[in-house]
Structure formats: structure tokens, C-alpha cells
Amino acid sequence: MTSRYYVACDLGAESGRVMLGSVTDGKLVLEEIHRFPTGATRIQNSLRWNVLGIFQELKTGLQKIAARGIAVASVSVDSWGVDYALFNERQPLLATPYQYRDARTEKRYTAALETVGRETIFAETGIQFMSINTLYHMIADVEDNPDVLGIADQFLNIADYLNYLFSGVARAEVSLASTTQMYNPTTGSWSAELLRLFNLPERLFPPIVASGTPLGPMTAELANDTGLKGTQVIATCSHDTGAAVAAVPAAEGDDWAYLSSGTWSLIGVELPGPLINEAVREGNYTNEAGFGGTTRFLKNIVGLWLLQESRRAWLRQGNEYDYAEINKLAEAAEPFRSLIDPDDPRFLSPADMPEAIAGYCRDTKQPVPESPGQFARCILESLALLYRSTLDTIERLTGRTIKNLHIVGGGSQSALLNQFAANATGRKVLAGPVEATAIGNVLIQAVALGDLESLSAMRDLVRQSFPIDTFDSTDFDQWSEAQKRFEKLREST
Ligand code: LRH
């Protein structure tokens, strides 16, 4: 028996995908209908998203689905966190949205921590400190763009904004709202205190809705443009990481952690509610809102961005490698030759990633990587070592014991990184599914429409539908030696 069709529009920092999902014979079937690049554009000394171009690509994906003549029950957009669009009743877009890595937040970030203090911001939000957070972009808008803010009626984070263009209904979905560092998880509303302290105009802040809230039918204009009929728009987990964590194929129990691996490595555990205390603040861990009222207690690690940017730099020099080749070269390279601290701020937005890595190795008196294989090995080993420190700290902060690490997302395709993660952490790694975000998005639609019961029913279905590869830890002693070197490096830089 074929159930209904649901469409997930999943926007990552590198690419966007329109995915068609349906549940057939107790299994979820997911088909990629349309894929397009999303990457930000450098323009007039700033970094921006072509968000209307993305809207157009999503339309193309929806048109391709409509051309099949199937009835689509619902559609939902998810995206990376943090970034936002400003608009008003007459203007669909008032400024070109900034990309979170834009340097405009640097001085605002430092100033905000100095004037208001980490204690207040953390007590209000439970969110980790990163200069990319929406709060610091908003402060930049208040200071640099009062004219634009003055005529804006509303701000919406990117996925919520696209759901608004789809449905005409402007709502901030809670998982994405929580990434702004302006949402208070205790009151379940925007932080009135932070809005006041930073002079952020209250009228811009839309009503917040729970993950899995139907917004309404697709606008007549979009239905006409795409050819879809009777399709509902649903706010699922608008935050991609929230959708991915909802699709982690874990069984009940609390002995597992997740790693949503892509441009970022988001590593953490699912808690019943936020954990906001001094130790968590000092460790810079975060409490993002998850599906079903859960809390995604996690840490942002810079992730495969290190490799993506290195690859781009090699391409600029005329050398093109795909990820499979890079993994092969890394596998053949000497182990533990040089290590970096992926958390070092110099890796957030460097002009030339291999040069930034080489600089770190020079500064810390380690052999400087020369070949792509050496660079890639250094990146992958360092990431795996950071996974271990992070999991160990999470165990300490939450009192949990973590036995299994579920790796989902594009990064779970790297068998080498999966094996390194198992070796470094001494835990069992379960890798897959790759498309966890789109799967989470689709299945939350199914729950919202009453076709599926709960988060645990979603996870059962993911386990039944997708293969999961297992990696057991080997060479733990050798990795533990490397861990000591790694921790020393982190203390010294
Ligand atoms: C991953 C992600 C992450 C955010 C970052 C901005 O795509 O959403 O969870 O912190 O992008």
C-alpha cells in the first residue's frame, strides 16, 4: 500500500535538494528530485545568500514533482541555522541576507560579551557562544542598517522565510529560533531581556511555533507556478540539524550520542530539557530545541568545512580532487604527523584553508603538511580527536555514559572518518543514513499530518528503511597517545 507523498526541501551550505518521500510497505522511500548549489556570494566586501535564486530552484524541484501527476500531501523547508531575511508587507525581501561567516559580527560579538556579559546571555538562552549567531548579526543591522530595519515588519530565519514564501504564513519554528541566541527555552519565547539590552525592535520578532506545525495551504500563486494542488506547508524542524537528529536511528535509552556530519560536525546527546549551568557555559555547549520538546545538547565543531575549503583551494591551483580520492590519499598518508585544533578561530573563515593549517603547524612547531593526503589526514585525525574530547566532556556534564555514536549526514559516507571516530572515541560508530536531514523533515510531516505516531516511531521506521554501517574501535591505545598530544596542543594555542 502506498501512503502519501511528502516533499522535503533541504538547504545546506553547499547544496540544496528537493526530495520526495513516501512510506511503502513499512519502509520510507526517498528520491532526490532536484539538486542545486547554494554557496554564498562574496559581493562588495560582504558574504551573502542568493535567497531568491534558492526560492526559484525550489520551485523548479516542485515543478518536476508536479509533472509526475502525483498528489503531494505536504512540503517543508529546512536550512542551516542562524541566517535570516528581512521583509515587509509590500516587499518580499528588503536586503540581501548575510551569510553567517560574514566578518561584520566580529566586533559586535566582542562588544556584546563585554557590555552585557556571557552570564546574562547564557542564562537567557542556554546557547553556545559563536560569533556567527543571529544575535550579533542583528546588532550589526541595528548599528549599520537602521534604514532597512526601520521599514522591515519582520525577520525570519532562512527556512522559515521560504516556508513563508510557500504559504504566506510567517512563523518562527522553535528549533531554528533556538539557533539565534535570542530565544529563551525556559519561557518558550523570544528573550525580552536580550531584546531590551540590545535595542532589538520587538515588532520584528514573529510568533514561535512548535516543530511539526501545519502552516496552511501553499499560496495560490505558488500552486499555479508549480502545478501542485492541495499541498499543505508544514514547519517541521526548520533547523537542518534538528531534522537530522530526529532521524537518528537510535533505539530508546540514553547511552548514545549523535554526530550530524557535514559542513559542521554537530555532536551531542538528546536531553528531555535544557541544561543551563556554569560548567555548560564554560565548556561552551549548547541547548538547541529538538523535535517533540527535546533538547539537542551539543557542540558545533568546525567539521568538514576544513576539507571543503582545502579542496576549493587546491581547485584554484588547478588540482581537482573528489572526496573519494581525498580519502584514499589521506588513508595512505603517515598517521599523526601533524595535528590541529579544529576549534581554533583561524579556521572559521580563512582566505586559504591549507595555508591556515600550515600556519597552525608552523606556530606549534609540527611538520607542515605538504601534500593533499597529508592535509586531509591531519584534518580527519584532528576532527576524530576532538570528537573524543567532546564526548568525554558531554559525559561529564550530563552524567550519561555514551556507548554508541550515530553518525548521520554527508560526512557519514567517509568510511575513513567513521573508523577514525570509532578509534579515537573508543565507542562503536553506527554510520547512516546520509540523508538524515531530509528524512527527518519528511517524517515530521508524516507525524504532523497524523500518519505516524511519534519520534520513536520515526526512528523505528528509519532503522527499517536504511542500511547502517558499524565501525568498532581499534588501536585505541595509539589514539589515546595522540589524544594527549592533541590536548596539549589545545592548551597551548
Ligand atoms: C548546520 C548548521 C548548524 C549551525 C550552522 C550555522 O548546517 O545548521 O547546526 O550551527 O549550520
Automatic annotation (TrEMBL):
Pfam families: FGGY_C, FGGY_N. Gene3D superfamilies: 3.30.420.40. InterPro entries: ATPase_NBD (IPR043129), FGGY_C (IPR018485), FGGY_N (IPR018484), Rhamnulokinase (IPR013449). Residues 257-449 form the Carbohydrate kinase FGGY C-terminal domain. Residues 5-245 form the Carbohydrate kinase FGGY N-terminal domain. Keywords: ATP-binding, Disulfide bond, Kinase, Nucleotide-binding, Rhamnose metabolism, Transferase. It comes from the Bacteria. PANTHER family: L-RHAMNULOKINASE, SUGAR KINASE. Belongs to the FGGY kinase family. This is Rhamnulokinase.
